[in-house]
Amino acid sequence: MNQRKLAFSIGWGYYLVITLLLYIPIVLLIVFSFNDSTLLAFPLKGFTLKWYQQLWEDTELLRALYNSLVVGILSSLVATAIGTFAAIGVTRFHFIGKDFFLTVASLPLVVPYVVLGVAMLLLFRFLGIELSLWTVGIGHVVINIPYVLLIVAARLAGFDKRIEEAAMDLGANYWQTLWRVTLPICMPALLASFLSSLTTSFDEFALTFFLTGTDNTLPIYLYSQLRFPTRVPLVITLAAVIILVTLVIVLLQEWLRHLDQPKRRKGIEIT
């Protein structure tokens, strides 16, 4: 019993240390966003909201924010559509080369984004394609498809195929069943996939750095502003806003994922 208590205490201690190391920098970031000074040091000089006010007065920043939102929304929609159809093909059909397809589709999960960015840069240069927000969007689609595939495939594997068979027995063809039965049942997973892709796209820096042209996204803009000491408080304030918005999106995504899990009662799975 003492050994179990010791192991439990060590486990909780390890958890608390990791939690503190992860979240203390985030808390400090938010605290300094209200500091009335360009110096990042204690004690704080005073409380101010001027950095938040300046965020809405910086036209270049707002343009970068707009670019990130456009790229994130469009690339997430495309990645969700492609990943969903890929998940349906993997879970509902048997075809030659299925294992190879899964391996190729999962490569962006294990290949460093820096390496992937350089490879895509060379490809676009070879094809004579100018770097722009379109090339950034293509790169974001590539890295988000595996996440969509895994999330949607997990949901498709979690509900009874007999629901689809019953719909087709009642006269619906496969595409009608897919549109009216399968996709509505998977809608929470589709929304979770979209939000996950949007978060990844909005925060992505390494891949975007190699594929962007003259129009910057928000992470690239933040990186460029770190060269100017007087702009550091503004960067910190923007980073604090991004962290809070991202946290809300992640919590919403997790809520949708748990909402989509099949309920279990008395050991029987109900879908």
Automatic annotation (TrEMBL):
It is found in: Cell membrane. PROSITE patterns: ABC_TM1. Belongs to the binding-protein-dependent transport system permease family. CysTW subfamily. The chain crosses the membrane at residues 12-34, 64-88, 100-127, 133-157, 178-198, 232-256. One of its GO terms (cellular component) is plasma membrane. Residues 65-253 form the ABC transmembrane type-1 domain. Keywords: Cell membrane, Membrane, Transmembrane, Transmembrane helix, Transport. InterPro entries: Bact_Polyamine_Transport, MetI-like, MetI-like_sf. GO terms for biological process: transmembrane transport. The keyword Coiled coil does not apply. It is a multi-pass membrane protein. It comes from Ornatilinea apprima. PANTHER family: PUTRESCINE TRANSPORT SYSTEM PERMEASE PROTEIN POTI. This is ABC transmembrane type-1 domain-containing protein.
